[in-house]
Specification:
With 231 residues, the chain is of the alpha/beta class. It contains ten helices and ten strands. The chain has a single domain, classed as 3-Layer(aba) Sandwich (Rossmann fold), CATH 3.40.50.300. Strands 2-5-1-8-9-10 form a six-stranded parallel β-sheet, sandwiched between helices. The chain is globular and about 45 Å long.
Length: 231
């Protein structure tokens, strides 16, 4: 069994969309995939299907039940804030060691386990820990997702530098097209490629929701249960 951690250069850059697309592509190839989002903020039980954990369950072909939500996203908070602040709003605290322990235990018969983070790589998740501490503690490689908005290049390269400084392998970067921006997706990818070396960059243009997205086939080729790449 192999694990990949999906993280972002910031918030709302498309981590869940990318995670769901990767799940769907690997399932289409007959692979077993398990996905988890241990920390989830902005969660409304009345709209669970529209939540990130709900989207992951749908992508895995599993019903959105309380039991399944507890299984893949045990720490769910109502406020749309960083997990530490969202937990504090409910008079709670995030136990970093418990989150890491849970993330290490997730297993089963899956060929690939996908753990989706929250916010960006430096988003606070507990009193003294950020997402990057979580990834480092797990020893998992990362898939980095960014946008194509003005400033995304700086955010993406800063996130990449932070991950590499912690010796976290970054298997690929996905550039998800941002709408209503003066910067094109192609220009963003070309610019980033000048600084990322041989690391694959996958462009993710906006398509109709019903369209088959060729970018996910590319991701499938990168992560299709090749233990040498994602272990």
């Amino acid at each position: 069994m192999s694990t990949i951690f999906v993280t972002g250069a910031g918030t709302d850059v498309g981590k869940t969309f990318v995670t769901c697309g990767l799940i769907a592509e690997l399932r289409r190839r007959g692979r077993a995939v398990a996905a988890f989002k241990p920390l989830a903020s902005g969660f409304d039980p009345a709209r669970a299907a529209a939540s990130d954990p709900g989207a992951l369950l749908t992508a895995m072909g599993e019903p959105i039940t309380s039991a399944n939500l507890d299984r893949i996203a045990p720490w769910r908070f109502a406020a749309p804030l960083a997990p530490d602040a969202a937990a504090a709003a409910e008079g709670k605290q995030v136990d970093f060691d418990a989150v890491v322990s849970f993330s290490r235990r997730v297993s089963g018969s899956a060929d690939l386990v996908v753990i989706e983070g929250v916010g960006g790589v430096m988003s606070p998740i507990a009193a003294r820990h950020t997402v990057i501490d979580w990834i480092s503690a797990l020893g998992s490689p990362a898939l980095l997702v960014t946008g194509s908005y003005l400033g995304a290049q700086s955010h993406a390269l800063t996130a990449l530098a932070a991950l590499r400084a912690r010796t976290i392998p970054v298997r690929a970067m996905v550039v998800s097209e941002t709408t209503d921006t003066t910067i094109s997706l192609a220009d963003t990818v070309r610019s980033l490629a000048r600084f990322t070396g041989s690391m694959p960059i996958v462009a993710l243009p906006r398509l109709a929701s019903s369209a088959l997205h060729p970018a996910f086939a590319t991701l499938g080729d990168l992560f299709c249960c090749d233990a040498a790449r994602v272990k």
